[in-house]
Design a protein that fits this description.
The structure holds two protein chains of two kinds. By secondary structure, chain A is mostly helical. Chain A has two domains: 6-115, no CATH class; 121-402, ABC transporter involved in vitamin B12 uptake, BtuC (Orthogonal Bundle). Helix content of chain A is 69%, strand content 5%. In chain A, the strands form two sheets. In chain A, strands 2-1-3 form a three-stranded mixed sheet. Chain A has a two-stranded antiparallel ribbon with strand order 4-5. In chain A, strand 1 and strand 2 (61-65) form a beta hairpin. Chain A is globular, with a radius of gyration of 23 Å. The two termini of chain A are 36 Å apart. Chain B is globular and about 70 Å long. The chains are: A mainly alpha, B mainly alpha. At the A-B interface, helix 1, helix 7, helix 8, helix 15 and helix 17 of A face helix 8, helix 9, helix 13, helix 14 and helix 16 of B. Chain A: Keywords: Cell membrane, Membrane, Sugar transport, Transmembrane, Transmembrane helix, Transport. Chain A: It comes from Paractinoplanes atraurantiacus. Chain A: The chain crosses the membrane at residues 25-44, 64-88, 95-114, 126-144, 149-169, 175-198, 205-223, 263-279, 313-335, 341-368, 389-409.
């Protein structure tokens, strides 16, 4: 009988097996390191790769010979993998894995940038901007799913948020009214999700998917009826202003990225800390986690399971609605049909890849944002690597993560299971 | 997953004091599946009507003096709504004017049967993707990957259609088979991952959907696939020997709908009569019990996803060989996600799925006329489709709205929620 589920695997894994997780990771790193050193190294031109510390080709830069860099970083990746294979102490494992992956990316960059330049500030701020909706969407997912409600409707919340921000922002000619109605838009979808999933016990994945289509249809319908005929009246929202903090904004690379930017970046980053702290250290967080892992036990000690779930799903709607505002108040200044184009599902991927934790979600979202930014950069400089394959990265990474090939991903135990008081 | 009983049969022997009519009426207003389905469609149409009215500035202006002369606002609303829904009907089923013209000899029979032809054309791929979701559901798997599997089916079916030279007849068969195999491969991956590592199929299939779409958008730009005479991203045209034979133009309905009915019959047989169907239903209801009874849950999951993926792949192939003729980035449209709704509406039963697909095809075909004639966006159809399924999936909601009696023998088909 070859039935093995996640639960079985943990029991099977014996501590003294030779091909344990660390050795498998090490072997994988050695293989990708070899690819980096041999393939990237031989394909790279022997020209200078310039990483400028500004938004363009000017100014101070870190330079390295492209071919040399590709081989050097590939060898470092191999070394990190070899160290893991040799069986170093467990506490070094994460660091070595991180080092291996970072050097692999650097080797790839050296190959691609050889003979050209890559502006670091632009790359970092672009990655953060692309990651912004993903961070907010994934945080919305964290809020819902840690309390046991699967949220596949992030995409729909984004769309409603973006639509609300564009419509009300234009009518009121106020960016703040737009932001608030984005929140309302996210909460509307969240309320439908909560009501159908908690009150009527409908399959949460089904509700999520259907709500996505509903949001797509409603926003598309109203877009074609209202916004398309009269874009000036209904669809020209103001942009969120960019604020520059004097002093801090002058720090190289980090300054312009973090301190000369719009409000949403700060909201997103602060929310990561707040939700992390809230989940770990407050009464609300303990209760949320209890409801998500074992609702019956939580109910026994007097926690209102359904009430807490309602609250968390609605809070998730608030956060996802802010994420939706990104699309119409920050990224572009008009609503368009299906403009989120699957970002909600990448946010879902970031949530899962980040193992249902706020900081994990932040890391995953930044990684996905970087992959997207890199894809844009490569297609702009005419790289032979097709940008579609780079855009696949988030999805492939998530499949690898849920398949347990790298570490183990476990959802909250009661995620998606409706609670019926008996 | 849903396991519900058929709507209550009228008993042959009536209980003493209840007449047949009163029993029938009682059953009619009880929450059986048929009643809930019709009321769901009705509710969706009502909400759609509200959307139509509130998005029309002309009609809204009459509402400004609603208290003084309500008849203006109500008449205008009624005209708008009735025109929209009449168009929906005329575009989907039949247009009395076209029939009249045909009988008078001023019109052609093609025009009279045009609406039905359009409905069946849109329905054909949805039947396949719907069956794909339905059969997976019965085995306890939630196949959200219908979209990706259909896209890969489009790709493999389409590539065989224009890149391989084969005699008429054989070419079509090979292209359809290629579509099936492509989709089957895309279903095999999540099935295998589920069986071997326990990776949840909802997550893996969502991710594979996007990978498939990106792969398609890359593929149509490659030399050998891309049409050299065109500047935009579009593939070569599929050879006529690989296209599904259709009725004479302007009717578009093609052999796909016949294949869809055959596929429904095969799936119905597979589910209800074959040993594998028994196994998959057993696994779907209770995996540990099935395992104890000596069935291999892992093997069933994998094989089930292969079949489900193959069906969705066939849907993609029917789409590209029947109507699209070329690969584009949007060739699969939304047939995978629509298939999900179709399966839910059909309550995961093969023949129910067929009917649901025809209803969705009708909405789509009627929506086209509604857009052209009444100027109401096709997106309204998406809203209607989503709303119908929301109400179907929450029968308790419908029951509460209409104060329905609990059905005597039918259990409401609430989908049983389960976690990641």
């Amino acid at each position: 009988m070859s039935t093995a589920t996640v639960e079985d695997l943990t029991e099977i894994t014996a501590p003294d097996r030779f091909w344990n997780r660390q050795r498998r990771l090490g072997a994988a790193l050695v293989i990708i390191g070899l690819i980096a050193a041999i393939v990237f190294g031989s394909l790279a031109e022997s020209k200078t790769a310039k990483f400028t510390l500004s938004e363009d080709a000017e100014g101070a830069a870190l330079s390295i010979n492209g071919q040399f860099g590709a081989i050097l970083f590939g060898v470092v990746t191999i070394a990190a993998g070899a160290a893991l294979l040799a069986g170093v102490a467990k506490r070094w494992q994460t660091w070595l894995l991180g080092l291996g992956i970072v050097t692999f990316v650097l080797s790839f960059l050296c190959w691609q940038v050889a003979g050209k330049f890559l502006p670091l500030v632009d790359t970092v701020s672009g990655s953060l901007e692309l990651a912004l909706p993903l961070i907010l969407g994934a945080l919305a997912g964290v809020l819902c799913e840690r309390s046991g409600v699967v949220n596949v409707a992030i995409e729909g919340q984004f769309l409603m948020g973006a639509f609300g921000a564009a419509l009300v922002g234009t009518l009121a000619t106020s960016v703040w009214a737009g932001l608030i109605s984005a929140i309302v838009g996210g909460v509307i979808i969240a309320a439908m999700l909560a009501w159908l999933a908690i009150r009527f016990l409908v399959d949460q994945v089904v509700v999520g998917i259907v709500l996505n289509l509903f949001a797509l249809g409603v926003t598309g319908f109203l877009y074609e009826r209202l916004m398309q005929p009269d874009a000036l009246k209904y669809n020209s929202p103001p942009r969120l202003p960019e604020w520059k903090i004097p002093g801090l904004a002058d720090i190289p690379v980090i300054g312009p990225v973090l301190f000369d930017t719009n409000l949403l970046v700060w909201i997103a980053l602060i929310l990561v800390f707040v939700i992390h702290f809230g989940l770990k250290r407050t009464r609300w967080g303990l209760r949320t986690r209890a409801v998500g892992e074992h609702p019956t036990a939580a109910d026994t000690v007097g926690i209102r399971v359904r009430g807490l779930r309602y609250m968390n799903v609605l809070l998730g709607g608030v956060v996802a609605g802010i994420g939706g505002a990104y699309f119409t108040l920050v990224s572009t200044s008009a609503f368009n049909k299906n403009m989120t184009a699957g970002a909600g599902f990448i946010a879902l991927a970031a949530l899962i890849f980040g193992r249902w934790t706020p900081f994990g979600a932040l890391g995953a979202a930044l990684f996905f944002g970087f992959a997207q930014k890199l894809a844009n950069y490569l297609s702009a400089v005419g790289s032979p690597v097709p940008n579609q394959f780079l855009n696949m990265l988030p999805y492939i990474a998530t499949i690898i993560a849920v398949a347990g090939l790298v570490g183990r991903v476990r959802a909250p135990a009661a995620d998606g299971v409706p609670y019926v008081k008996s | 997953m849903t396991t519900e009983v058929a709507p209550p049969e009228k008993k042959e022997e009536e209980p003493k004091r209840e007449t047949f009519i009163s029993l029938f009426l009682q059953n009619l207003w009880s929450a059986n599946t048929v009643t809930v389905t019709f009321l769901s469609i009705f509710l969706a149409l009502v909400i759609g009507a509200v959307l139509i009215v509130i998005s029309d500035s002309q009609v809204l202006s009459y509402f400004e003096y609603f208290t003084s002369r309500p008849s203006d606002a109500l008449n205008a609303s009624w005209d708008l709504i009735s025109q929209a829904y009449a168009d929906l009907f005329k575009g989907a089923i039949f247009d009395p004017a076209a029939f009249q013209a045909w009988f008078d000899g001023t019109g052609t029979w093609q025009a009279a049967f045009g609406p039905i032809s359009e409905t069946l054309t849109y329905a054909a791929p949805l039947v396949f993707t719907g069956l794909s979701v339905a059969i997976a559901f019965r085995g306890g798997l939630f196949n959200i990957g219908g979209q990706g599997q259909a896209v890969i089916g489009c790709v493999t079916g389409g590539v065989v259609g224009f890149a391989v030279g084969l005699p008429v007849g054989l070419h079509l068969l090979v292209a359809l088979l290629a579509g099936f195999l492509g989709g089957a491969l895309w279903g095999f991956l999540p099935g295998l991952l589920k069986a071997r590592t326990g990776a949840h199929e909802v997550i893996t299939t969502i991710m594979l959907n996007y990978i498939a779409t990106l792969f398609l958008s890359w593929l149509i730009l490659q030399n050998g696939v891309r049409d050299p005479d065109r500047t935009d991203a579009i593939s070569k045209t599929i050879e006529s020997s690989a296209q599904l034979p259709a009725l004479p133009s302007p009717l578009r309905v093609h052999l796909g709908i016949v294949l869809a009915v055959v596929a429904t019959a095969v799936v119905a047989w597979l589910l209800n009569k074959s040993p594998f169907g028994f196994e998959l239903r057993a696994v779907g209801v209770n995996p540990p019990a099935a395992k104890t009874a000596g069935m291999s849950v892992a093997k069933t999951y994998t094989l089930l996803m292969v079949i489900a993926g193959g069906l969705a792949g066939l849907g993609g192939a029917v789409q590209v060989l029947g109507t699209a003729d070329k690969l584009t980035a949007q060739v699969a449209g939304n047939i995978g996600f629509d298939g999900l709704l179709v399966a839910l509406l059909g309550r995961n039963k093969p023949w129910g799925t067929l009917l649901a697909a025809i209803l969705y095809g009708a909405l789509r075909a009627g929506g086209n006329l509604m857009q052209v004639d009444a100027g109401i966006s096709l997106e309204l159809v998406t809203v209607l489709q989503a709303l119908i399924v929301i109400f179907i999936a929450a029968p308790a909601l419908v029951k509460a709205i209409f104060q329905l009696r609990a059905a005597r023998s039918a259990r409401l088909g609430t989908t049983m929620a389960k976690g990641w």
